[in-house]
Amino acid sequence: MKAIILAAGKGKRLHSEQFSLPKVLRQANGRPLLGYVTDSISFIDKKDTIIVVGYKREQVIEQFPGYTFAVQDEQLGIGHAVNMARDILEGYRGPVLVCYGDMPLFTPDTYKNALLTHESAGADCTIITGITDDKLAYGRIIRDEEGKFVTVVEDRDCTPEQKLIKELNIGIYVFNSEKLFEALGNLRNNNAQGEYYLTDAPELIRKNGGKIETYTINDGKQLLGVNTPEELEKCEAILKERA
């Protein structure tokens, strides 16, 4: 079992530059955001956990010894960030969990159950989805008449009807390693941001005959990520409740 934690961001909207810290080292309830994530996936060995670093990476490497690190020098999207782990995982054939260093509220059980779902279903990609009434700016899961996964539509690209879909793509996945990097090699950045979207990978895998599974959680509190000072406050309040 391997994991990739995405932790290269600067945290511009979080004003992290004022603190001379990368985003994932901003603190909530006295601990770096990244620390909550590494704790939640601690059932995966440190050496098998690749942290993708970028902005002020030396600080992350110093604070999280024992992990494997990949470097993203240019911020060209999440798909590009994950691809930085390609060489490290060369020859590996098993499952890879892809998660975020700025999402501190996911529980170990959520990650473990997603992995169990992936393995028991014999899936090539398992998407963690969340159902909530909260208005979160996440992509929507689009399914066919039989309830099978078709694609993810980003929030900004949703039609009014799609906006009403409550099943959200959180951006956390379990992939078969070979299928993941095959899909990443086929990503295109012909979008407004000029970025390589990881959200395109499951659809590419499906179109190539791969099996897509989903694992759905109904706990809206876990779904929060930290992009703004307000979101950091919300996450901190939830972490204090749990403590």
List the main descriptive attributes of the protein structure presented here.
243 residues; alpha/beta; Spore Coat Polysaccharide Biosynthesis Protein SpsA, Chain A; 9-stranded mixed β-sheet; two-stranded antiparallel ribbon; 8 helices; 24% strand
What can you tell me about this protein's structure?
The structure is a single chain. 29% of the residues lie in helices and 24% in strands. Helix 6 packs across helix 7. Strand 4 (49-53), helix 2 and strand 5 form a beta-alpha-beta unit. With 243 residues, it is of the alpha/beta class. The strands form 2 sheets. Strands 1, 4, 5, 6, 7, 8, 9, 10 and 11 form a 9-stranded mixed beta sheet that branches. Strands 2-3 form a two-stranded antiparallel ribbon. The chain starts with a strand and ends with a helix.
Mean pLDDT: 94
Report the principal-axis shape. Answer: globular
CATH topology: Spore Coat Polysaccharide Biosynthesis Protein SpsA, Chain A
The amount of beta strand, in percent, is 15-25%
CATH architecture: Alpha-Beta Complex
Structural class: alpha/beta
Count of β-strands:
11
How is the main sheet built?
9 strands, mixed
